[in-house]
Design brief:
The complex is a heterodimer of chains A (505) and B (316). Chain A has 14 helices and 17 strands. Chain A has 505 residues and is of the alpha+beta class. In chain A, the strands form three sheets. In chain A, strands 1, 8, 9, 10, 11, 12, 13, 14, 15, 16 and 17 form an eleven-stranded mixed beta sheet that branches. A four-stranded antiparallel beta sheet of chain A has the order 4-5-7-6. A two-stranded antiparallel ribbon of chain A has the order 2-3. The longest helix of chain A has 23 residues. Chain A is globular. The two termini of chain A are 45 Å apart. The relative contact order of chain B is 0.14. Chain B has 14 helices and no strands. In chain B, α5 packs antiparallel against α11. The chains are: A alpha+beta (505), B mainly alpha (316). Chains A and B meet through β1, α4, β8, β10 and α6 of A and α2, α3, α5, α7 and α13 of B.
Chain lengths: 505, 316
């Protein structure tokens, strides 16, 4: 009798929990103004921010990033079991997860999807080079066998390595079916991408933390609307047309704040701006001259010109920001107020012959252009001649692939989950950072199996980066977006997400 | 009759030559412009090897002459190619964006003509008065105002301030037709007001030319009412330059609404061209510009035909 009462009480409690959860579900629609139309929804092929932002609602990866940017399970059932030699990873998979088409998620889907990812994705190709085999271990586990140790494996399995039903995997994706909290209903390019709540969604457990933890599709529908003009995003947010507007100009902060209809949101340390140098050819192939660039520049002035207010940036020599697991001051050199005397000495030591430095920047990202303008002034003050070339972003990405066409280009990145996935560290990334000491430092990192060992190895890599000077870190910037009043539960993340967000009533 | 048919054929031949030139020039401009769709598609992470691999997959590494030949052959068969980014035929992409552009152009020109014709005529009739001077000044100001700036002001006043119109877009899924048109009011006003300035000035100038002519004086001497003199005698004879400028305005609106469509987030042909240029979606740029050029040429042809209707003395 007692036992059956307990069962009844438990069932009642479960029913209560369930009805509480159901009560949160809303018939509302979240309209999200994005900076433009995604070029595709195939995130394996095109892992750009706008694609990742939309796709994370549709697709899921084996792991995802928590608030400390550590990889925690999403479709995986737990952390992998790693063999003693660090070459075999057995990843358990969650059971009972369904795709939007009603099919069950299993190991076959994982191997099929990850094989495509390793064939088409830039990071996936790097992983493919060290993977000996990827096989299913029953229906609910997969096994990676590696040729050599590879510390960033879980980080790379946390982004763009999305899982599709095996039968939907193709060279060119035509059906976008995932396991995420929202399913794709319709995409009208340049008009909207419409996602609807997936009622069969099975959420991971745990407190929400960055992209990790419990995910609840509260809004019935999310509409991503491309609004390329930043001012129109601001006005649309204030007028109530949008519930969320991405990437607002910092100059609009006060206007949104005073509107009474929406509030601005600052996401701290959204990314970092850098000046990447050409180590393969041209003036800056000489290390002394790259170090002269480091010594000549003043990061504070560049960031102030670019972001106009200290609320929107910070100057920090550590490649990773304060609060990050990877933050370190190790190896920092020639980063400060701009030292033209030291730069002049390095110029002389490097035998600078007055050849102009071709500095590529783009107005498509206005802050890139402003950073370029201030950098030009500081470099000229130190004795460099500078040819500032302002082009559109598509031209810049083409030109930078040609080692004969440039000396510095300005870019920006987010802070990745694993430090060795920073593009510049890759030998083949424009800039062609190839150095013996870098290779040794990265090899030490790859061998590391504990967090402490990885952190110590990263200290070594940062030290080498400051010495080799493949790039100049300008500073960290914050992102400004806006949320309409009445929308609740929004937590800012680098790729804004809208599960756990309740629309206006 | 045979002469008219011959003249028409000659004109159509001229149009074909113009379009052939457009096809070639656009193809060359698009290919010599730096930038690579493969690099844009793959994003910042891409290595040169990844980009080269995708270029090969997309056929962009083929010799330019071969690509040009395929493009021309496609056009002859009514195929403008496949969009690199949209994963659909260019003709489908253009058709999907034709509605907002068509109605935006239509509303803008209606607004422009509704303002310009009466104001231009009145201004000419009341030449030298304060009204005329105000019209001359306002048209100069309106002609100098960029439509995107006027658009932003209209958004602030009527979308944010009054909430009468949406600030952006063309409606979501299942938005009824009339509500979609509601989204076009502000951009149409922005374009219409700016375009009305030019048409007003042309109307005023054309009317001034004819108002002093003998036949107008004769009509007045015969006791015709002022309204009849202006609308039947003067306006009819002033219509050729007015039709010309209206035709040019329509043609420019089809191609020139690019900035306004971007500001208002309208998924029209102009917006498609901007996105395609930024992404270097070659087939879409080529196809869209060819269609816009064809519309431009066609409108000019229609305007020429209208000359004959308005003034039978005009020969083809």
């Amino acid at each position: 009798m007692k036992k059956s009462a307990l069962v009844l009480m438990t069932l009642a409690a479960l029913a209560g929990t369930s009805s509480l959860a159901m009560a949160q579900a809303s018939d509302g629609v979240l309209t999200v103004a994005t900076i433009g139309e995604p070029p595709t929804l195939d995130v394996m092929q095109t892992a750009t921010d706008i694609v990742l932002t939309i796709d994370q609602h549709i697709f899921e990866t084996l792991y995802t990033y928590d608030a400390q940017w550590k990889s925690v399970p999403l479709l995986a059932a737990g952390q992998p079991t790693i063999s003693e030699d660090g070459l075999t990873y057995r990843i358990p998979l969650r059971e009972g997860v369904k795709f939007h088409d009603g099919s069950d998620f299993d190991a076959k889907d994982v191997t099929a999807s990850l094989k495509r990812w390793m064939a088409v994705n830039s990071k996936g190709k790097q992983v493919a080079a060290i993977v000996e085999s990827l096989t299913e271990d029953g229906d609910h586990a997969v096994v990676f066998k590696l040729k050599s140790r590879y510390a960033p494996l879980l980080a790379t399995l946390s982004q763009a390595s999305v899982i599709l039903p095996s039968e939907k995997v193709a060279d060119t994706l035509t059906e976008f079916v995932g396991t995420g909290p929202y399913a794709l209903k319709e995409r009208k390019p340049d008009q909207y991408t419409q996602l609807v709540r997936f009622d069969g969604y099975k959420s991971p457990e745990g407190e929400p933390s960055n992209y990790a933890g419990k995910r609840e599709a509260i809004a019935k529908e999310i509409r991503f609307v491309p609004v390329p003009d930043a001012n129109t995003r601001v006005e649309g947010l204030i007028s109530g047309q949008f519930d969320y507007a991405d990437s607002l100009p910092v100059s609009a902060f006060e206007r949104v704040e005073k509107s009474g209809n929406a509030k601005p949101v600052i996401f701290r340390d959204a990314g970092w701006a850098s000046m990447n140098m050409n180590m393969k050819e041209g003036v800056l192939a000489k290390k002394e001259l790259r170090q002269a660039v480091q010594a000549a520049l003043n990061p504070n002035d560049m960031m102030m010109a670019a972001f106009s207010d200290e609320r929107f940036f910070s100057v920090d020599a550590s490649i990773f920001p304060e609060g990050s697991f990877w933050h370190t001051e190790e190896g920092v050199a020639r980063y400060g107020d701009g030292n033209p005397e030291e730069a002049a000495k390095l110029l002389e030591a490097g035998g600078y012959d007055g050849t102009p430095i071709r500095l590529l920047t783009s107005r498509q990202y206005e802050f890139h252009y402003k950073i370029g303008e201030v950098a030009k002034a500081y470099l000229e003050a130190a004795g460099f001649k500078v040819d500032l070339q302002v082009v559109d972003w598509a031209t810049l990405t083409t030109r930078r692939a040609d080692s004969k066409a440039w000396d510095i280009f300005i870019t920006h990145s987010n802070f990745p989950g694993d430090p060795t996935t920073i593009n510049t560290i890759t030998d083949s990334y424009p800039g062609w950072y190839v150095s013996e000491q870098k290779a040794k430092a990265v090899a030490t990192y790859m061998d590391a199996t504990t967090d402490d060992a990885k952190k110590a190895a990263w200290d070594g890599i940062q030290t080498v980066i400051y010495d080799d000077a493949p790039l100049y870190k300008v500073g960290n910037f914050n992102a400004v977006s806006g949320v309409a009043n009445g929308v609740s539960g929004y937590e800012p993340t680098y790729w804004p997400h809208f599960w756990n967000v309740a629309p206006k009533k | 009759m045979a002469r008219i048919a011959q003249a028409l054929l000659k004109r159509l031949g001229g149009m074909a030559i113009v379009l052939a030139l457009v096809v070639t020039v656009v193809f060359i401009i698009v290919r010599v412009t730096p930038g690579d769709p493969a690099a844009v598609m793959l994003g910042s992470d891409a290595t040169p090897a990844d980009i080269a691999q995708l270029r090969e997959k997309m056929g962009l590494d083929a010799p330019l002459l071969l690509q040009y030949g395929q493009f021309v052959l496609g056009i002859v068969q009514g195929d403008l190619g496949q969009s690199i980014f949209l994963n659909q035929p260019v003709t489908t992409a253009l058709a999907a964006r034709a509605e907002p552009t068509f109605f935006l152009t239509l509303f803008s020109i209606l607004i422009a003509v509704a303002i310009a014709l009466p104001v231009g005529i009145l201004s000419a009739v009341k030449r030298g008065t304060i009204f005329d001077q105000i019209v001359v000044t306002l048209t100069m100001v309106a002609a100098s105002v960029p439509s995107f700036w006027l658009g932003l002001i209209l958004i602030q006043v009527f979308a944010v301030g009054q909430g009468w119109f949406p600030a952006s877009g063309y409606g979501g899924p299942e938005t009824p037709f009339l509500e979609r048109l509601h989204h076009l009011v502000l951009p149409a006003v922005a374009l219409g007001v700016v375009n009305s300035a030019l048409i007003t000035r042309f109307t005023r100038a054309a009317m001034l030319d004819v108002l002093g002519d003998d036949y107008v004086r004769t009509a007045r001497a015969k006791g015709a009412g002022e309204g009849r003199v202006i609308l039947k005698h003067a306006l009819k004879n002033a219509m050729i330059p007015i039709i010309t400028v209206i035709g040019l305005s329509i043609a420019m609106l089809v191609a020139g609404a690019v900035v306004t469509e971007t500001v208002f987030g309208l998924p029209g042909v102009g917006n498609l061209v901007v996105s395609a240029v930024l992404r270097r979606d070659y087939p879409v740029i080529q196809g869209a510009l060819l269609v816009v050029a064809a519309i431009y040429v066609l409108i000019n042809f229609i305007v020429d035909m209208l000359y004959i209707l308005v003034d039978p003395r005009v020969r083809l």
